[in-house]
């Protein structure tokens, strides 16, 4: 049984890792660029948290068991994005390697707390802390709601109960999933919106953004995508701000994008099974408006004209009857003069 103990409409989260755990190595790094700073933790033993994508670059953290694995992990032979790799060698020394779409870049040992530069837009990277055997430590506290609704971080505190035992209480942040151990079993609990798998695959082929002259404000942005459908085959489509993609009942809107190399295109996906009924309603409303403002006055004018014509015809007949001579009515018989 899942029990919700508490709920926070907006929360402030502080995450840290301390030595003494069994979660493997953890690395805290800072990505510093002219636009913003991004700080995060990476866990080498957790596939879901060993890599993070910030748009301009992907950062990953691995552990190598040999010198050959270390060399192979520093640079991927084929990459579609700019990548920064942190690799913990077999001797416990942390190394970094930079790879771009044009090929391998610099690499070398990492000095904690000292930045090294990347070839992308003046970006600098700092490896701040390295914990060999990390144990997670996180605090979730209530916080004042932000001005914008989309910046809220809701959180719910839950635990699992069963005859076999009870799990520790855990805070789940919005969109997060965590494993809870209770008794001899484990269950994965998530706090997010319901997910729906679409019966086809959408791949971004190309993205373009045009700016207003003399400014950095986007005037328009558009995407070219490939849809791979097991039932209908493969097709390519163009999506722009005012021209969404309609495919098998789903609508893909060009919502936003993220600057960087490579560019990231963001879509909003909607599904409206009752859309034909909406169209029928729009048609009926349009027909009602046309009836009210155009057809009904036209029919009223026709009826008024027909009534006026009938009235005039009746008046004409009445006037014609009034002008005809009236024949004398026969009276009673009068006796002849003089009598009989």
Description:
With 340 residues, this protein is of the alpha+beta class. The protein has 3 domains: 1-17 and 134-187, no CATH class; 24-132, Sandwich (Tumour Suppressor Smad4); 201-271, no CATH class. The protein is 17% helix and 46% strand. The protein is built from 2 helices and 23 strands. It has helices at 67-74, 275-323, and strands spanning 2-8, 11-19, 26-32, 37-43, 51-53, 58-63, 83-88, 94-100, 103-109, 116-117, 124-131, 134-142, 155-162, 165-166, 170-173, 176-182, 185-191, 201-211, 218-229, 233-240, 245-247, 250-258, 264-271. It has a 5-stranded mixed β-sheet, with helices on one face. Strand 19 and strand 20 form a beta hairpin. The mean pLDDT is 85.
Secondary structure elements and pairings:
Blueprint: E1 2-8, E2 11-19, E3 26-32, E4 37-43, E5 51-53, E6 58-63, H1 67-74, E7 83-88, E8 94-100, E9 103-109, E10 116-117, E11 124-131, E12 134-142, E13 155-162, E14 165-166, E15 170-173, E16 176-182, E17 185-191, E18 201-211, E19 218-229, E20 233-240, E21 245-247, E22 250-258, E23 264-271, H2 275-323
Parallel strand pairs: 6-7
Antiparallel strand pairs: 1-13, 2-12, 3-4, 3-11, 5-6, 7-8, 8-9, 10-11, 13-14, 13-15, 16-17, 18-19, 19-20, 21-22, 22-23
């Amino acid at each position: 049984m899942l029990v919700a103990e508490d709920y926070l409409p907006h929360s402030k989260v502080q995450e840290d890792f301390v030595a003494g755990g069994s979660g493997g190595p953890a690395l805290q790094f800072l990505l510093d660029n002219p636009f913003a700073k991004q700080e995060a933790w990476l866990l080498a033993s957790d596939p879901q948290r060993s890599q993070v994508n910030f748009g301009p670059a992907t950062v990953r953290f691995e552990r190598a068991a040999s010198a050959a694995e270390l060399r192979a992990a520093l640079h991927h032979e084929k990459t579609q994005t700019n990548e920064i790799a942190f690799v913990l060698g077999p001797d416990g020394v942390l190394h970094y390697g930079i790879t771009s779409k044009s090929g391998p870049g610099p690499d070398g040992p990492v000095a904690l707390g000292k930045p090294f530069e990347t070839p992308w837009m003046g970006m600098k990277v700092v490896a701040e802390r390295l914990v060999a055997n990390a144990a997670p430590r996180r605090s979730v506290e209530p916080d004042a709601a932000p001005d914008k609704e989309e910046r809220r971080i809701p959180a719910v505190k839950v635990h699992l109960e069963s005859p076999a035992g009870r799990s520790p209480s855990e805070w789940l942040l919005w969109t997060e999933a965590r494993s809870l151990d209770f008794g001899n079993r484990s269950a994965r609990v998530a706090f997010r919106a319901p997910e729906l798998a679409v019966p086809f695959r959408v791949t971004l082929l190309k993205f373009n953004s045009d700016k207003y002259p003399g400014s950095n404000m986007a005037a328009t942005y558009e995407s070219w995508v490939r849809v791979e459908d097991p039932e209908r085959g493969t097709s390519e489509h163009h999506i722009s701000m005012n021209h969404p993609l309609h495919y098998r009942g789903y609508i893909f809107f060009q919502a936003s994008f993220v600057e960087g190399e490579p560019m990231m295109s963001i879509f909003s996906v909607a599904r409206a099974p009752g859309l034909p009924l909406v169209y029928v309603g729009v048609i009926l409303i349009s027909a009602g408006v046309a009836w009210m403002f155009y057809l009904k006055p036209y029919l009223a004018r026709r009826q008024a004209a027909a009534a006026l014509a009938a009235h005039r015809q009746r008046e004409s007949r009445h006037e014609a009857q009034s002008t005809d001579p009236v024949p004398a009515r026969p009276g009673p018989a009068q006796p002849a003069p003089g009598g009989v």
